[in-house]
Predict the 3D structure of the following.
Amino acid sequence: MPDPILQTFPLGFPWQTQDPFLFCVYHLDHYPKGNGELGPDPKHLEGRNIGNDFTIKDGWRMYHGQTIPGFPYHPHRGFETITIVNKGFCDHSDSLGAAGRFGQGDVQWMTAGRGVQHSEMFPLLNTDKDNPLELFQIWLNLPKADKFVEPHFKMLWHEDIPVIQEKNAQIKVIAGNYRGAQANDPAPNSWAAKDEHQVAIWNIHVEAETEYTLPKISSLATRTLYFYEGSEIYIGDRKVNPNFGIALDPFQEVTLKIGAEKAYFLMLQGQPIDEPVAKYGPFVMNTEEEIQQAMEEYRLTQFGGWPWPYPDNVHDQDKGRFAQYPDGSLVEKG
């Protein structure tokens, strides 16, 4: 039988991806107690490159945040962001007037389409204990035909996301179909919205010193398994260390033999869009001319402007999980 492993590669920042995915990043930050204003005590900010703090110091980073960690307002066009918050919280605000606080396993699926600004801040809600954050952000491309759709965001609340318990494993089905368990619908214009594109996003946890078999599919989809926490695993006779990605043959079942520690994986799969990709920062189009057009439109219109009082907008300390949509509708999860 041919080797199911097509390639292995170390996980950097961001992680290497395959078409239809553009980008994947894993944030793990062990934030300290909050200061009552949703940030760390100012004494912890000394010695940091505030505004561009991507180096782990004391176990965490401020990213582009000045007083609250996270990413103040910035634009996107031409693709989708899928944000999985396993631990901690993310405060969302955008140029459409939409907002939300999500975390503890929730997922936000946002279609940037023709253009949107948003902020993603990580409020330190706990003032009596630490504020760990574990978050994946995935960029899923849009085909040329859908790059100018209206912006849209959807919440996949953790209470509604299928979680499959197997003998030795737990599989969170964020997108796609896992052994008959169908994920919630993605955003309506997503490449993932059509079953034939075989898009799947699974977060897989496997117990130590056991085996787990990843099911095969009959598709030319790309499939990448990211081994982001644990000790060594074996696929056949090949040893794979943690913090490595594994490009797999989708036509073969793959049995993972887990080492001495519980293993954690993210799996990204999808039929390639197979179109030219031109990227510049937060813009992803098909040609350099379209990138220049996007930059000019953003300069002139700010993609609708910014209706919030601060570029790093956050919500009240005592606010629970919620989503406020552009049409004014509100969902509160507590």
Observations:
- Residues 21-50+60-157 form a domain with the Jelly Rolls fold (CATH 2.60.120.10).
- The first strand starts at residue 5 and ends at 10.
- The chain has two domains: 1-12+161-273, 21-50+60-157.
- The chain has one helix and 26 strands.
